[in-house]
Amino acid sequence: MVRRLPEYLMIWVPLLLSAAHLISFSIWTIWISFTPSTLVPVTGWVGLRNYNSVLASRNWQIAFDNLLLFGIAFVLLSLITGLVLAILLDQRIRGENVLRTIFLYPLAVSFVVTGTVWSWLLNPGIGIEKLVHDLGWSSFHFDWLVNRDMAIWTIVIAAIWQSSGFAMALFLAGLRSVDTDIIRAAQIDGAGPIRTYWRVILPTLWPITITVVVVQLQFAISAFDLVRALTNGGPGIATQLPALVVYDLMFQRSQLGRGAAAAVLMLLILLAVLLPYAAWRYVQRRQAAHA
Amino acid sequence: MAALSIRALSKRYANLEVLKGIDLDIESGEFTVLVGPSGCGKSTLLNIVAGLDRASDGTIEIGGRVVNDVPPKDRDIAMVFQSYALYPSMTVRQNITFGMECRHVAKAEQEKALANVAKLLQIEPLLGRKPSQLSGGQRQRVAMGRALVRDPLLFLFDEPLSNLDAKLRVEMRMEIKRLHQRIGATIVYVTHDQIEAMTMATRIAVMHRGVVQQFADPDTVYRYPANLFVARFMGSPPMNSMPARLEANAGGPVAVIGAGRPDEVRIHLQDYDAATSYVGREVVLGIRPECIAEGDRVFSAATGAPVIVTAPVELVEPTGAETIVLLRLGGEPAQARISPDIRPTPGGTASFALDTRRICLFDPETERLIA
Amino acid sequence: MAALSIRALSKRYANLEVLKGIDLDIESGEFTVLVGPSGCGKSTLLNIVAGLDRASDGTIEIGGRVVNDVPPKDRDIAMVFQSYALYPSMTVRQNITFGMECRHVAKAEQEKALANVAKLLQIEPLLGRKPSQLSGGQRQRVAMGRALVRDPLLFLFDEPLSNLDAKLRVEMRMEIKRLHQRIGATIVYVTHDQIEAMTMATRIAVMHRGVVQQFADPDTVYRYPANLFVARFMGSPPMNSMPARLEANAGGPVAVIGAGRPDEVRIHLQDYDAATSYVGREVVLGIRPECIAEGDRVFSAATGAPVIVTAPVELVEPTGAETIVLLRLGGEPAQARISPDIRPTPGGTASFALDTRRICLFDPETERLIA
Amino acid sequence: MRRGVMSSDGRPPMRDRSFAPSRILIYLVVTLFAAAYLAPLVVVVLNSVRTNEEIAQGSMIGWPQHMAWRNYLTAWSGFCIAETCAGIRPYMLNSALITIPATIFSTLLGAVAGYAVSLWRFRGDNWIYGIVTLGLFLPQQMRLLPWTIVLRDIGLINTLWGLVLIHTIQGLSFTVLFCRNYYIAIPHELIRTARIDGAGFFRIFWRIILPLSSPILIVTVIWQFTHIWNEFLYGVTFTTGQQQPVTAALIALSAAVADIPQHGVQSAAVIIAALPTLLIYLFGGRYFVRGLTAGAVK
Amino acid sequence: QGAVKPRLTAISQWSAGSDGAAITALGKKFEEKGGIWQHSPVPGFTTEMMNKLRAQIIAGDPPACSQLKGPEIAAWSKIAPTVDLDAVVAAAGYEKVVAPDLAKLHKPGGKWIALPLQIYSTNMLFLSKRAMDKAKADKPPVTWADFNDLAEKMKTAGVTFPVANGGTRADDGQKFEASLAGISPTAYRAAAMNLDKKALEGPEIKAAFAQMRKITNWMDPNVGAQPYAINLKRFVDGDMGMLIMGGWAQGVLRNAGFKLDDFVIAPGPSDNGKPVFLLNADAFIFWQRKEPDLQAGQMLMAQLVMDPAIQTMYSQITGSIPVRTDVDLSGEGWSDGQRRTAAALKDAVASNQAVLSLAHNMAQENGLTAAMIDVFTEYAKNKTITPDQAVTRLAEAVEGSR
Ligand SMILES: Nc1ncnc2c1ncn2[C@@H]1O[C@H](COP(=O)(O)OP(=O)(O)OP(=O)(O)O)[C@@H](O)[C@H]1O
Ligand SMILES: Nc1ncnc2c1ncn2[C@@H]1O[C@H](COP(=O)(O)OP(=O)(O)OP(=O)(O)O)[C@@H](O)[C@H]1O
Ligand SMILES: [Mg+2]
Ligand SMILES: [Mg+2]
């Protein structure tokens, strides 16, 4: 036992620190969500009051609706974008390395910068719309950023720009690891490129797809910096998202208890996404074990 | 009619010439086996025939039509891969019908063809399963089914049995052979297992370094290997080869192994007319291990008495069904296959009978069979 | 002294009993081969001996010391894996000396041991290379070197040759055998290649479903298989087995195959005393394919004349060195190995000689050898 | 083991022999995508050499009238954050001082833990591994205050080491996940042989596993480096004045709400600040894709 | 004292621009007096600054003084001990020169714990000279009716957007508070400052929302979340007409290179003709420290902040007006706008029309303010919300975050 102490320390200390901080922080937040804390954490018990007021607030309701829309639209579109890019790059095209770098580099950029730059580009007064107007096409209209109904889509655009490279990378790797013989078999069977992709190659990618969906969903749910820099929840409160609401309540509005309640609600949303995934993984592993 | 004609086919990858002027004519209904060591170009040749790779030079005709520029799906071929290459996301049923679906075959017809093949291969109970739920042998059978359902001009098999264990391999080998006899298809079959080659082929093409070394029926390949490479490649343990001198003699030439040594071995060559021109020169003498047996063996159908020699024994390996003995003939090492219940002592000497009817002589320069 | 003693060893994984009370005593200097079909527990047993897995029950002694609780590195063993498991990031030299480095052997001593081993295995020119720059055979040799350099009480080999091609396998087989003879090490060797087992072992342990079916020298295993499983597992093609009736007769019992049929085959059992108690009962008769040969074959050292039968031929498979014939004896299917130049016609009949000295009888209930 | 996932051989000819029109279409679409992905970068680069006046009088998108290279000088060492007029240079250094150790620690510890979880197995490993990877999903806003309390209690508040600690521990979620998924594909025989050879946990790690780990280490290093480098919230909350990371300096430049925006200098600063991460992707991108496959698709 | 060298640790969000310049100048003065100035700017939103402050308070290491304003002073003073400044304030005779409403905010428990530094009015009206020329107007509007007339005139005269604007939350808040305060300072006091339930649902609120809708209709809808400063050029060029903004816009305009005669500054519209002053004051709160040098630093800082010369210097840099009502603005270095602002403040104080800005967190604690601004900003961006609905929503928002 003593002989193996260093290795136990090396294994357990980091893992335990990591696990412990996650568990204790979560418990702490849950506790705070039941207290009347405002500026700083205080003890006390207010039952579900914080939850009720968060759930009743327009901010949260809009944020929740937005999350549904944003989550679904962003995940689907970035999945499709990533897949399309991967398939295009898979065609043995010239300059693949350069293109791959181009699609990946947004990952290197901070969300704040992404949000700021896209807010320039998408702003009709100073960005693309103005450019097109100055070029002479004055009826061109692209004002999503300041349009209540469309502003959420600007976040979708910026988020896709930033993270579809990740999906692309995973899909590309997946495409490249498909057994060549299978593709050859399909050719001999008489399948054209489209049918080959659709029927033979893509169905083998769905474990990757699940990974991509989970990672992107996690991104969608915790999207914060990007939104703050791009729309800051506006126009009005049209692009509120739960992460924004949590931060706002906790730190801007000094309503720590409510913020914690919102955070706990966010965690519940996360669990709603993760539990089915975990269950799926479990079933997968069970099946693998039986095969 | 030639089902497949390959003329002056070559294939280069950058600076590497993988196939060098291959010529092959395969008749309809033939079972041709391509054998050769790893990397000799077997798969490349098959892929070019299938249209999955392009030839650098030469022409390919399938059923009398030049197909160099015809895409794989229009070549009327079916192919079975070593890895089976079953579509992992489709059921067995879908795997088999996918090709028909691509060719827009009517549903009813698909069903009929599927039912036939499934019955033939006895995979009816598996139709609803995914490939991952099948055993190796079952997968192999499904891969066969996918090819069989097409009824093509030409079947291409790329080492279809090499992923199976020994027992299953023997079974599937017989099954494929029976299948060939039943449907009379034209088959080109790649393997590097010589037993498979010998037992299944109507003709064997032995390849080495991108060149077809010999293309003949199995007996000819085994009995009269075109050169030393073929001689050594076919058969396990391989044919023994040793330098020998041809001397003139009354009843035809005599091959002398270890000439001048006290234990020199003299072999009268019977019916080996071509040998006369080599009299007085060095040759390479090839003798198969099964032609060296224990001293009291009577080789069946032998017309004359075997040559009996006494030779030093170096190593004895009983395999149960026979005993492999490493001995020295005129100082040259050779392997013998003797009866399982005879176990000479390593280090001592023993008497061996040589079946001299099956001896091959090779030119030491060109390594070609002297014939 | 027993180099390795295994007593009542069992291993359970959750609800699966992989090893069921294994007992083995292996003498110092022995070459023990573990054979058995895939999944029978060979690797599990080896891993437990190596200390990489824990036994659920039973004890293991190495060199007289109970090692159940000794970590692998202190058991004084060396192990070679099927995958070789060479350290990919180290050179050959480092791969071989890594173990000594771990045991803090002095540099000079390391060098000496390395030089010895490298010379023995002829890998001196490879010492500076990485495993990825080696061929299969070379890798195998390095893996051996890593084990040899330790000079341990016990060598464990887990299918060390199964990743090599046929030719290399034969060569390496001989090399390992020579090595064993030279250094006289105690070796436990796992394989599922019976030729390897037969030719290398001083004793073979045949395993099936977590139980040792037979533990004996190769000849005994081949000649007197303890039960039908062993009989069928060892040998390729496997031993023919068919139901037969024992009838009393003057010169000892007679086994009748297909009794009552016009083509019944009657075999006088010589020297098979144990058979008498089964007279009048059904048994399973086992006869090896090489004991069925063409009609004019003289089995060497045979004391009596062979039984000659005329039997229908179903399938003929010439392999070059011999011809495998599927025939029917008294209606029961059987395989025969006959001379390569004899090719009976499938569908017709031919005459076969049976070597009756080597017949085995099995109890149909217990499937055990009647002995 | 990871045989040529990205190698280009083995592609069937189907994909490179398609008839010309479809090739042209493919190139067209790829080019359009590439243009869209590059647009923001181009805009920032152009703006970085435009003067503030030029931007204020025109729009954010435009060709520079005269190259205002000064912007880079100002951004690098000129502009003021309150009384300090040193540009973003000192803050770049701070970011490096936080990012480099945190990246190294989280990668190394993650590698050891991933190695332990995947190749050694111990009681409860799956549980703890599951919890640790859940950390990927815990929103960081939620952790800000607890970290404050923790840093206070261990006396690391307002120090760079406090941030290193935070990023190391939080980074473990990612590094452990990816390292484990990578190591799980390493043959167990390697470990077994080494154990018989007499090597212990650490020797096996250092001598055998680590040399095999470069693909996944590249992934975790790239990932950790960019995330920590780009982090802002903890960076401003847990540092003071001269210790702040470069993201804080960038924000200081852009969030002067009551002033004329300094878009030119801001753009130049953004580019300088993003250079380390951009370069990392530029040079490491290819390995990133390769290692990602190994690490993520399990 | 004497032996220790005064030292001050301070945090603020003033990191750049004129704010940065002003605090830097203040630091210089502090150092001239022999102190050690350790200012730590926290860039970003106010939230980040407060996060930082909170973190330091939780860590038991608050700065000697920090930027904080309005009712937050009272709120934060409850979570950590503050310095009693009564003695220094009394010594400087400061209390009588500070507007009473303002003074109250800085002595929540009856004792001075924080000191205001500068004052802005958030409802100043900036008029573009060129736009006025286009509309042939020469006088700034006094009432909302005047304002609306002028806007219409500008619109017809070809000014694309009669109202220049930004798109931030504070911007939208300012539009409302300017409207309401201009319509009725009394109602503003009751509703915005005292959260009187009845006043919150009163007719003035509805009228204010109606006025705000008019204003937003004249604004450029494309501004998005950009700050108002992005439009300064269009404003000066006469493409936009009027800007309702805090006094700080003057400094920004001048920093951007525009001249004083490019624009006119006037008090925001007030229907009763007398200026309404929406007070926004920046302040420092002083946290209790044990270190003698910090304590000395705090005293020094307090003296400096109250010093008329320092206040003059500070306001001249930022464009604000001094907290002290006794500073003479007639001299060099003051702009007309500042003078007019100071005069307006005096008038407003006299007529009890100086009220605390809601949009800039002077009237309510942050939570309430943010909840109310939610309503304003949504109303500004969503023209389908009727003033009636807005009134209801505002009342609900107040109720919901009490
Ligand atoms: N795309 C390629 N580029 C370059 N060389 C190649 C390529 N494909 C195959 N080769 C080379 O061509 C030679 C023949 O390969 P091929 O696959 O046909 O061998 P094979 O006879 O099928 O071997 P095996 O029995 O191992 O399957 C090999 O040396 C191989 O390295
Ligand atoms: N960790 C494990 N958990 C559960 N079952 C296991 C585990 N390891 C091995 N087994 C099972 O134990 C049995 C024996 O496995 P083992 O690897 O010893 O077989 P083997 O004889 O070496 O087979 P092969 O010839 O294929 O190598 C198999 O059925 C296997 O599925
Ligand atoms: Mg091949
Ligand atoms: Mg095994």
From TrEMBL, chain A:
<feature type="transmembrane region" description="Helical">
    <location>
        <begin position="150"/>
        <end position="175"/>
    </location>
</feature>
<comment type="similarity">
    <text>Belongs to the binding-protein-dependent transport system permease family.</text>
</comment>
<dbReference type="GO" id="GO:0055085">
    <property type="term" value="P:transmembrane transport"/>
</dbReference>
<keyword id="KW-0472">Membrane</keyword>
<keyword id="KW-0813">Transport</keyword>
<feature type="transmembrane region" description="Helical">
    <location>
        <begin position="101"/>
        <end position="121"/>
    </location>
</feature>
<dbReference type="Pfam" id="PF00528">
    <property type="entry name" value="BPD_transp_1"/>
</dbReference>
<feature type="domain" description="ABC transmembrane type-1">
    <location>
        <begin position="64"/>
        <end position="277"/>
    </location>
</feature>
<feature type="transmembrane region" description="Helical">
    <location>
        <begin position="196"/>
        <end position="221"/>
    </location>
</feature>
<dbReference type="GO" id="GO:0005886">
    <property type="term" value="C:plasma membrane"/>
</dbReference>
<feature type="transmembrane region" description="Helical">
    <location>
        <begin position="259"/>
        <end position="280"/>
    </location>
</feature>
<dbReference type="InterPro" id="IPR035906">
    <property type="entry name" value="MetI-like_sf"/>
</dbReference>
<feature type="transmembrane region" description="Helical">
    <location>
        <begin position="67"/>
        <end position="89"/>
    </location>
</feature>
<feature type="transmembrane region" description="Helical">
    <location>
        <begin position="12"/>
        <end position="34"/>
    </location>
</feature>
<protein>
    <submittedName>
        <fullName>Sugar ABC transporter permease</fullName>
    </submittedName>
</protein>
Automatic annotation (TrEMBL), chains B, C:
<dbReference type="GO" id="GO:0055052">
    <property type="term" value="C:ATP-binding cassette (ABC) transporter complex, substrate-binding subunit-containing"/>
</dbReference>
<protein>
    <submittedName>
        <fullName>sn-glycerol-3-phosphate ABC transporter ATP-binding protein UgpC</fullName>
    </submittedName>
</protein>
<dbReference type="InterPro" id="IPR003593">
    <property type="entry name" value="AAA+_ATPase"/>
</dbReference>
<dbReference type="GO" id="GO:0016887">
    <property type="term" value="F:ATP hydrolysis activity"/>
</dbReference>
<keyword id="KW-0067">ATP-binding</keyword>
<dbReference type="Pfam" id="PF00005">
    <property type="entry name" value="ABC_tran"/>
</dbReference>
<comment type="similarity">
    <text>Belongs to the ABC transporter superfamily.</text>
</comment>
<dbReference type="InterPro" id="IPR003439">
    <property type="entry name" value="ABC_transporter-like_ATP-bd"/>
</dbReference>
<comment type="function">
    <text>Involved in beta-(1--&gt;2)glucan export. Transmembrane domains (TMD) form a pore in the inner membrane and the ATP-binding domain (NBD) is responsible for energy generation.</text>
</comment>
<keyword id="KW-0547">Nucleotide-binding</keyword>
<dbReference type="InterPro" id="IPR015855">
    <property type="entry name" value="ABC_transpr_MalK-like"/>
</dbReference>
<keyword id="KW-0813">Transport</keyword>
<dbReference type="InterPro" id="IPR012340">
    <property type="entry name" value="NA-bd_OB-fold"/>
</dbReference>
<dbReference type="GO" id="GO:0005524">
    <property type="term" value="F:ATP binding"/>
</dbReference>
<dbReference type="InterPro" id="IPR017871">
    <property type="entry name" value="ABC_transporter-like_CS"/>
</dbReference>
From TrEMBL, chain D:
<dbReference type="InterPro" id="IPR000515">
    <property type="entry name" value="MetI-like"/>
</dbReference>
<feature type="transmembrane region" description="Helical">
    <location>
        <begin position="161"/>
        <end position="183"/>
    </location>
</feature>
<protein>
    <submittedName>
        <fullName>Carbohydrate ABC transporter permease</fullName>
    </submittedName>
</protein>
<dbReference type="Pfam" id="PF00528">
    <property type="entry name" value="BPD_transp_1"/>
</dbReference>
<feature type="transmembrane region" description="Helical">
    <location>
        <begin position="268"/>
        <end position="289"/>
    </location>
</feature>
<dbReference type="GO" id="GO:0055085">
    <property type="term" value="P:transmembrane transport"/>
</dbReference>
<feature type="domain" description="ABC transmembrane type-1">
    <location>
        <begin position="92"/>
        <end position="284"/>
    </location>
</feature>
<keyword id="KW-0472">Membrane</keyword>
<dbReference type="InterPro" id="IPR035906">
    <property type="entry name" value="MetI-like_sf"/>
</dbReference>
<feature type="transmembrane region" description="Helical">
    <location>
        <begin position="24"/>
        <end position="46"/>
    </location>
</feature>
<feature type="transmembrane region" description="Helical">
    <location>
        <begin position="127"/>
        <end position="149"/>
    </location>
</feature>
<dbReference type="GO" id="GO:0005886">
    <property type="term" value="C:plasma membrane"/>
</dbReference>
<feature type="transmembrane region" description="Helical">
    <location>
        <begin position="204"/>
        <end position="225"/>
    </location>
</feature>
<keyword id="KW-0813">Transport</keyword>
<keyword id="KW-0812">Transmembrane</keyword>
